[in-house]
Amino acid sequence: MISIIGSGRVGTAIAFLCISNSLDDVLLVNRTKTKAIGEALDISNAIPEKSNVSIRGTDDFSKISDSDIVVVTASTGIYLKNRTEIMDTQILMIKEIAKQIKKHCPSAIILIVSNPLDVLTYIFQKETQLSRNKVIGIASSLDSSRFRYLLSEKFNVKQSQITDAIVLGEHGDSMVPLFSRVKINQKNILELITEEEEKIISTEVQNYWKSLRLLKSRSQFGIAKHTFDVIKSIIKNNDLTIPASIVLNGEYGEKEVSMGIPVKINRQGIKEVLEIKLNESEKELLKISAQTIRNNIKLL
Ligand code: 2OP
Questions:
Q1: Closest ligand 1 atom, CA of 117?
Q2: Which domains can be identified in the chain, with CATH numbers?
């Protein structure tokens, strides 16, 4: 069973994908019980005819006890300028959720989607003391999609013509799009782009979510699909290599922080942390990103 904490736009979009693809039973958990039940009633109608999956809504945490996977999408409010704006209340919330998960389903794999993503992933792992391989923050794969999209627009090519566009580090202003690896039609992008253009694209990737705020209020489908892909890889035990946030233990020279780095995911959660080659300026930017997240953790 997949439990989804929070049945707002993101939680329900993830639930819809899981149910319409018959992945597994889903439980929506929300503070407002009627909202969870209502969303479940709606999404129930997307169950394929011959499928055995079901979806229910509740405000009762004890019902998550059979979960193999718990996805945390809950939010205590709206932030407009920065994902750390409502950090204090988000921290209180994640600590409460951590307590409930520890009590009811301590062997589940946990996917953190709420913001500030890296700080919450770190706090959750520290609070629960679950294996770091079972606490995965989903965001850098979304940021990587945005990077790929923006490059495809700039170079007027299809997204499929762009490979190895990866974003690492914080899901925030210090995120690090890695230009050195990107290829457009097999050709290294560094032969096609100036440093000035790199800076512009980096800023656009960082600010992508703000455009969504402006144009449609909240991001929803992109993050839902990336989270669904991770759930699917865990349930089907198919290796998936993406950048995701994990508490680091010396990888990339970092400790006492969670941030987006390339990982391999399967039924065990994070099966492997991958250390890829970065150039000197990327290493430097990643260090700054890790420090930015650590500074936020220290503020608590
Ligand atoms: C996003 O990047 C707001 O973190 C959310 O879309």
A1: 4
A2: 2-137 (3.40.50.720)
What is the distance between the alpha carbons of residues 126 and 256, in angstroms, rounded to a whole number? Answer: 10
Which entry of 9, 134, 148, 171 is annotated as an active-site residue? 171
Pick the residue whose CA is nearest to atom 1 on ligand 1.
209
Mutational test site, ligand 1, from 79, 83, 85, max ligand atoms within 8 Å of CB: 83
Q: pLDDT tens digits for 213-252?
A: 999 988 999 999 999 999 999 999 999 999 999 999 999 9
- What is the token pair recorded at 182? 């990107």
pTM above 0.85, yes or no: yes
Q: Which amino acid is at 107?
A: S
**Residue 2 backbone phi and psi in degrees, to 5:** -105, 120
Residues with CB under 6 A from ligand 1: 83, 115, 209, 212, 219, 223
Q: How far apart are CA 83 and CA 86, in angstroms?
A: 7
| 226 catalytic per annotation | no
Q: In the beta sheet, which residues pair with residue 187?
A: 184
Q: How far is the CA of 88 from the centre of ligand 1 (A)?
A: 18
Angstrom distance (rounded) from CA 295 to CA 65: 35
189-207 pLDDT, tens digit each: 999 999 999 999 999 999 9
Cβ proximity of 177 and 297 under 8 Å: no
What distances in angstroms separate CA 19 from CA 39, 49, 227, one per listed residue? 12, 11, 13
Q: How far is the CA of 10 from the centre of ligand 1 (A)?
A: 10
pLDDT per residue over 267-283, tens digit each? 999 999 999 999 999 99
User: Which of 145, 209, 227 for mutating ligand 1's site (highest number of atoms within 8 Å of CB)?
Assistant: 209
Q: How many CA atoms lie within 13 A of 47 on its CB side?
A: 16
Cβ atoms of 233 and 239 within 8 Å: the answer is: yes
